[in-house]
């Protein structure tokens, strides 16, 4: 089951509650399954592995700090980010921070997807599993981010309309989603998302 939520920046994010939710109420987690087959995590051999896992625990309570202020400023995000912790919305995927440029409809959202990990559907394997089940129909490999595997994933490919959704695997069971919206097209939306993703990896390497 997927869960959509409208973030403060105004972008609709299709991600990120991937599986393990109750059919009675979206966002209500079932007990975590015990095996990849039952959890919905993909056993697809094409799922890239993370050779050197990174620890994002430091940023679970302060997700806005995972992106350096200098990176945000270079993309013209000067207002403080909006934090969303665990709830039945996008927080079900994990803690997030969203930024926007007032008056332009440009947004950036980062999700540290610990919620998916805790349900047994974390990492890129969980996203491939959602794709395999048709929950997130669009999936395409993205360029590695500072040596870490990444994918573009969404309900549909919206890059040409200026909305780029990507996820970077920082451990085999943990991905960080970066979602940019309100840009002019694929090149600038994904360039912005990739710049933020690279800054996140640099931050985690230095943590």
Please identify the oligomeric state: single chain
Shape: globular
What name is given to the CATH topology?
Protein Transport Mog1p, Chain A
Helix percentage range: 10-25%
- CATH domain class name: Alpha Beta
Write up what this structure looks like.
- The strands form two sheets. This protein has a seven-stranded antiparallel beta sheet with strand order 3-4-5-9-8-7-6, sandwiched between helices. Strands 1-2 form a two-stranded antiparallel ribbon.
- Helix content is 22%, strand content 25%.
- The chain is of the alpha+beta class and 207 residues long.
- β1 (5-6) and β2 form a beta hairpin.
Summarize the structure.
The chain is α+β, with helices and mostly antiparallel strands.
Topology record:
Elements: E1 5-6, E2 12-13, H1 36-39, H2 69-74, E3 82-84, E4 96-101, E5 106-112, H3 114-118, H4 123-132, E6 138-145, E7 148-154, E8 164-171, E9 174-181, H5 186-206
Antiparallel strand pairs: 1-2, 3-4, 4-5, 5-9, 6-7, 7-8, 8-9
Features:
single chain; 207 residues; alpha+beta; Protein Transport Mog1p, Chain A; seven-stranded antiparallel beta sheet; two-stranded antiparallel ribbon; 5 helices; 22% helix; 25% strand; disordered N terminus
């Amino acid at each position: 089951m997927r869960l959509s939520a409208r973030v403060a920046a105004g972008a609709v994010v299709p991600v990120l509650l991937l599986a393990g939710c109750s059919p009675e109420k979206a966002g209500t987690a079932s007990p975590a399954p015990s095996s990849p087959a039952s959890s919905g995590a993909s056993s697809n051999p094409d799922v890239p592995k993370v050779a050197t896992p990174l620890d994002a625990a430091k940023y679970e309570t302060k997700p806005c700090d995972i992106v350096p202020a200098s990176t945000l400023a270079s993309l013209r995000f000067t207002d403080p980010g909006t934090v969303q912790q665990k709830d039945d919305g996008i927080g079900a995927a994990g803690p997030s921070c969203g930024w926007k440029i007032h008056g332009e409809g440009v947004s950036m959202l980062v999700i540290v997807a610990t919620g998916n990990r805790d349900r047994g559907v974390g990492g890129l394997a969980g996203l491939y599993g959602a794709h395999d089940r048709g929950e997130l129909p669009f999936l395409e490999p993205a360029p590695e981010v500072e040596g870490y595997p990444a994918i573009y994933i969404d309900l549909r490919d919206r890059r040409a309309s200026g909305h780029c959704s990507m996820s970077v695997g920082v451990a085999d069971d943990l991905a960080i989603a970066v979602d940019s919206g309100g840009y002019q097209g694929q090149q600038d939306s994904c360039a912005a998302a990739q710049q933020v993703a690279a800054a996140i990896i640099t931050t985690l390497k230095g943590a």
